[in-house]
Amino acid sequence: MSQLGTTLTQYIIEQGRAQNESRGAFTALLNDVATACKRLSNLVRLGELAGVLGTAGQENVQGEQQKKLDVIANEVFIESMQHSGLLAGIASEEMDAHYPIPERYPRGDYLLAFDPLDGSSNIDVNGSTGTIFSITRHVDSSAPSDIDFQQPGSRQVCAGYCLYSSASMLVITTGHGVAGFTLDNSVGEFILSHPQIKVPRQTSEYAINASNARHWLPPEKRYVDECNAGADGPRGRDFNMRWAGSMVGDVHRILSRGGLFLYPMDAKLAAAGKHGKLRLLYEANPMAMLMEQAGGKAHTGTERILDIAPSSLHQRVPVIMGSADEVERLIGYHHEG
Ligand code: AHM
Ligand code: MG
């Protein structure tokens, strides 16, 4: 009976039974996420044939040039998610303030924060991209404000991403481990392909945008210098480096075979008045939950990402995540100063 494969819906229902939880609403919510991801996967696959490449000719709230696909992805997600009666509000990298669920739909108990198309600079070159999402509970029954989204990552009830690459994959956690599903385009379903994703504690691979090397702070400079010294240096072995230009692509590789992902604080970001590049609520937090649920770690260098009390919707944070031993080593370098 197992030849057909387990669908995402079956997996969530079975997981609910195993945890003795009723998962009806949750199953429907994740189904909507999956539908949005399938729609996006299709557009990404068609690329220029769907007329989705190029810039949109406007900037988002972060002052970044929006790509057409950033805007389309945002709309596809909102349209797929707003009607269900399960969400109280939606926050996105591409929207200044959160999107309230229109009054014509019932208001639900969950808040969705998401990055519609992560790795935007990869869109036009047919590189890997993804969607990242984070779900928290809305604590009261009134209409939510931006502040309601500002919950520590440890309160997430579900987090995940969809990777659009040679295969499209949905990788999720509901707080009981991490599972990966591969989109079978012939039946239009995400099928369980990676039931229990675990990040190896040790690794000989790291990921960082090396063009920022001259701006790095001493702990990251020391870490990368020691890796690059390889078998001749203090680490006593050679290291490899990979940088996908898409957090989803890099994190997926690390969840698959280990590694360390770095987008740390540096002098260039500080000079621009930014406390990191990646956004806490819809990039760092969901990826941190996945990483920890897979046995890895996620930190800023001074604190665990999931413990941060957010101060704004689009807050940025330094990110150090991946194989536990390497994250701990770099935290140690931060303590030494
Ligand atoms: P985006 O959400 O606007 O695409 O920005 C986030 C991306 C991450 O996916 C990736 O890790 C990083 O920015 C790449 O930054 P850089 O262009 O400095 O290499
Ligand atoms: Mg992003």
Task: List its traits.
Fructose-1,6-Bisphosphatase, Chain A, domain 1; 17 strands; eight-stranded mixed beta sheet; 337 residues; binds 2,5-anhydro-1,6-di-O-phosphono-D-mannitol; D-Maltodextrin-Binding Protein, domain 2
Counting H and I runs of at least 4 residues, what is the number of helices?
Answer: 9
Tell me which CATH architecture of the largest domain applies here: 2-Layer Sandwich
**What integer is the average pLDDT?**
94
The radius of gyration over CA amounts to 19 Å
List unreliable stretches of 5+ residues.
Answer: none
The chain-level structural class is alpha+beta
Q: Write out the distinct hetero groups bound to the structure.
A: 2,5-anhydro-1,6-di-O-phosphono-D-mannitol, magnesium ion
Q: Give the H and E element order.
A: HHEEHEEEEHEEEEEHEHEHEHEEEH
Strand order, largest beta sheet:
4-3-5-6-7-8-9-10
> What is the count of β-strands?
17
- Please give the CATH class of the largest domain: Alpha Beta
Mass-distribution shape: globular
CATH superfamily of the largest domain: Fructose-1,6-Bisphosphatase, subunit A, domain 1
- Main β sheet profile: 8 strands, mixed
Taken together, the total number of domains comes to 2
Binned strand content? 15-25%
Cα separation of the termini: 57 Å
- Helix percentage: 25-40%
What is the name of the CATH topology of the largest domain? Fructose-1,6-Bisphosphatase, Chain A, domain 1
